[in-house]
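Supplementary notes for students who missed Thursday's class. We covered one full example, reproduced here. Read the sequence, then the structure, then the short commentary at the end.
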Amino acid sequence: MEYIRVTKDNLEAEHICCAISNNNDVQVASKKAWLAERFDEGLVFLKSVERGKCFIEYIPAENAWNPLEAAGWTYIDCLWVSGSFKGHGYADDLLESCVRDSKAQGRKGLCILSSAKKKPFLADPGYLAHKGFSVCDEADNGVQLWCLPFDENAAPPRFKECARHPHIDEPGFVLYYTNQCPFNAKYVPVVEATAKAQGVPFKAIRLESAEAAQNAPTPVTTYALFRDGAYLTNEQMNDKRFLKLLGK
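Structure (token representation):
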């Protein structure tokens, strides 16, 4: 397999794996706009040259859009290999590239979000354990921070206190999200419209800066849905899934 690093210079010409429609698609446009602003902050997007979901996205943890205390670490936004790409060692290739790059930069190690049991849109804990990662922190909602230290004496990364006990004081449905995930550009408005049609209180809060994301009341910031103050899920909703949640 050949891989290509997406940069400012080739961003417009390359597909971005998780959303592979044309550049006029709102999902592609939102993701590429988000990426374009992150490259100068050290973000790396490495992907298969073939079209499909086979990529890794990582960034110095100081610039991650998550509430972390992880100075000196590399934070993996996403490692996604699916479909026909699974079972060929491509995830290992991508992870090993991240390790090499991070060591060359003098980083302390890697960290990534997961859970005790596999959850949608979080890294597979079985794979992480197989590659030497271990749990270094856990929030009340079961979201875990896993790490792979390069120096056994390095202090492990942790969640910030604001994310350790995910809860808010607002009634109704409240969604925190970012444009890091391209699907939000399409489906957040769909769910907003569905909630309005059902007469259900729904508020969407788009986190528009690393500072805002680093102080969010949830360890997962790409998509975090609350209901009457309690954390519900990081699994993205479409109209049918949201209606099912409402019991419709």
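Commentary. The helical segments are 26-38, 90-104, 125-130, 161-164, 183-198, 210-214, 239-245. The mean pLDDT is 94. If anything here is unclear, bring it to office hours.
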